[in-house]
Amino acid sequence: MLEIRMIDKEDLGSVSGFISQMNISEESHIGYCGKDKNEIAKYMVNDISDVKYTDSFVVAYEGNKLVGVLGFDADLDDNSAEIWGPFILREKWNIVYEMWKKMAEMLPKKIDSLEMFPNVKNTRVCQLSSSLSFKKYSDETILIFQGTNSHELKSTSVEELSPEYFVDMVQLHDEAFPNTYYNGQQIIKRLDDHKKVFIITNEGQLCGYIYVEAEPEFGEASIEFFAVEKSERGNGIGAQLLTGALKWLFTFEGMDSITLCVNSANVNAINLYKKVGFEHLHDLYTFTKNIGQK
What's a Pfam family in this record (predicted)? Predict the structure, then answer.
């Protein structure tokens, strides 16, 4: 007998394992949900914070067997939510609309926009987004740098962001990425031993920056944002920033790989990443939907 209900804490282990198994396959892959069971569980508990995962996820069980998971990660400051899934066994896909309805009832009234980030080969979620009146916002490419190639990185000189460059870094970031998930001030607030901004300067002027996050516990890291001042483009600043950030990230023991996401139309950036040593991993779509005030 099928049961669709809100998640509870006792479900966390089975849910994180289920998402991990589903997200390994490109046919059910969602871009921001991870592939490591323990990392997924840690994220759900610690980082899905504006609305706790126990109030933002639904599960579907057939008897004692977990057959579906669907949830959202809300950003109440931005009035938006990222959709996790749907992760549903292929043979049970017909329950997707029932699960969606249950999850939608849990969305806070403040939420006025939704985002889905499926792999292009995840045709079921791509078709679902269309049937739910989502619009395709962009095509994205995921690239990966394998730790086994880190010895090939050249020496370069970058410096860690200091307070005297906060204003310039925020301005450059917000101009380069005006509608993204972290603005410049949010990045500065996130900085710690595992989250760093590196910069290159010239005679007291900021030339460019790069923001990276390390997850040494799981042997992973990501390059979140980087930008170069227009006047400095073509001078190799981007390659220096990338190389310097990679060299720092690989100082963590057990760092296996580093990923980044770039708009598929940004051919120059993709070529730069590949020149430094990144390889193609996934292609994804970003779908968005304005749901207005309820």
Answer: Acetyltransf_1
Structural domains of the chain, count: 2
pLDDT 10s digits, 35-61: 899 999 999 999 998 999 999 999 999
Q: Which two tokens stand for residue 195?
A: 């989250």
**Would you say 57 and 6 are in contact if contact means Cβ atoms under 8 Å apart?**
yes
Q: In angstroms, rounded to a whole number, what is the distance separating the alpha carbons of residues 22 and 44?
A: 16
User: 153: which DSSP letter?
Assistant: P
Q: Please answer whether residues 42 and 216 qualify as being in contact, where contact means their C-beta atoms are separated by less than 8 angstroms.
A: no
- pLDDT tens for 188-198 read 999 999 999 99
> Is there a domain that residue 232 lies in?
yes
3 within 8 A of 61, measured Cβ to Cβ = yes
Q: Are residues 107 and 11 in the same domain?
A: yes
Question: For the residues of 88-130, what is the DSSP string, one character each?
Answer: E-GGGGGGHHHHHHHHHTTS-TT--EEEE-BBTT-HHHHHHHH
CA count, 13 A, side-chain hemisphere, 78: 17
Which of 132, 164, 188 delimits the end of a domain? 132
| Domain annotation covers residue 138 | no
Residue 7 included in any domain: yes
CA distances from 74 to 30, 124, 209, 215, 242 (A): 16, 23, 28, 22, 30
Looking at the fold, whether 179 and 128 belong to one and the same domain comes out as: no
- Supply the range of the domain harboring residue 165: 144-285
Q: Among 80, 98, 132, which residue terminates a domain?
A: 132
242 and 271 inside one domain: yes
Q: Between the CA atoms of 180, 184, 187 and 188, what dihedral angle is there, to the nearest 10 degrees?
A: -170
Q: Is-contact 169 197, C-beta < 8 A?
A: yes
